[in-house]
Specification:
Blueprint lengths: L13 E2 L6 E6 L3 E7 L4 E7 L1 E6 L3 E3 L4 E4 L4 E7 L6 E7 L15 E2 L2 H14 L6 H17 L12 H10 L8 H7 L4 H7 L6 H19 L4 H7 L5 H12 L10
Antiparallel strand pairs: 1-2, 2-9, 3-8, 4-7, 4-9, 5-6, 5-8, 7-10
């Protein structure tokens, strides 16, 4: 069983069934998630509550605000529900085929009405199955150009690293019982070389666990999958073991994300 890739933890989450590349996020309790790494860059609009981001990009996004979140950078993320409802957000994934404005950004978010209107137009086109992909991409690019006009840009791509190759391989099938030996074989290096080159990431096991926990967070925020199914999706046959790992990583039980 496959699902769209995570967004905030991109990040896959609940994909709009009528809109490829659109993810709906929901969180019932206030929580802070440290060093969350998105799998794809996204344009995110907070619909209810607010979002606080710290790290390479930082700021507070109120309801109605648009944020541009990069992939591959660890960010501390805090989602705040309101007194009468959960935190909710809508995110558009930025496909690799879209030529994205890059450079120094003057912030994280904007309330610019022109960018928000373009976001709505993109959502509308993404919901129409008959619309050609090139038109969909153009609609997403329009949002990015309006964000660029107010100084919001994704950072320049970082030089490729060996750890990125490992992440790409493993992320394609997190349910697999990955071992260092299997990954080394797939990348045509020795297991000793793999372990040495991942020592700066905390080692292979730490990298694998973090990828799984980031994906799990996104599935919990953005799908109605039972916790046991989320656990299986990210490679845990035992839901209780998964829950222990998740609590150790994020400080709360998986079910708490949706509580209430």
């Amino acid at each position: 069983m496959k699902h769209d890739r995570l967004v905030e933890t991109g990040t896959g989450s609940r994909a709009d069934p009528f809109a490829p590349g659109v993810v709906r996020l929901r969180q019932a309790v206030r929580a802070q998630f440290r060093a969350v790494v998105g799998e794809a860059p996204v344009i995110l609009r907070v619909e209810q509550g607010r979002k606080v981001v710290r790290g390479a990009v930082a700021g507070e996004v109120a309801a109605g605000g648009l944020a541009l979140l990069p992939a591959g950078l660890p960010l501390d993320v805090e989602n705040h529900p309101t007194a009468d409802g959960p935190y909710r957000a809508t995110a558009i994934l930025i496909g690799a085929q879209i030529t994205t404005p890059r450079g120094m950004s003057r912030g994280l978010h904007t309330q610019d009405a022109r960018a928000s209107d373009a976001f709505d137009r993109a959502l509308d086109l993404l919901r129409r199955p008959a619309v050609p992909q090139a038109i969909r991409d153009h609609a997403v690019l329009e949002v990015l150009l309006w964000l660029d006009a107010v100084g919001l840009r994704l950072p320049p791509p970082a030089p490729p690293r060996f750890a990125d190759r490992v992440r790409a391989l493993v992320s394609a099938d997190l349910a697999r019982d990955w071992t260092a030996e299997a990954v080394a074989g797939a990348l045509a290096v020795s297991e000793a070389t793999l372990r040495r080159r991942l020592s700066g990431e905390g080692g292979f096991a730490a990298l694998l666990t973090d990828l799984r926990m980031n994906r799990a967070l996104g599935l919990l925020q953005g799908s109605d999958l039972p916790v046991a199914v989320v656990a299986a999706e990210v490679g845990y046959a035992s839901p209780s073991r998964f829950a222990l790992r998740f609590r150790a990583r994020f400080g709360l039980a998986p079910a708490k994300i949706r509580q209430g």
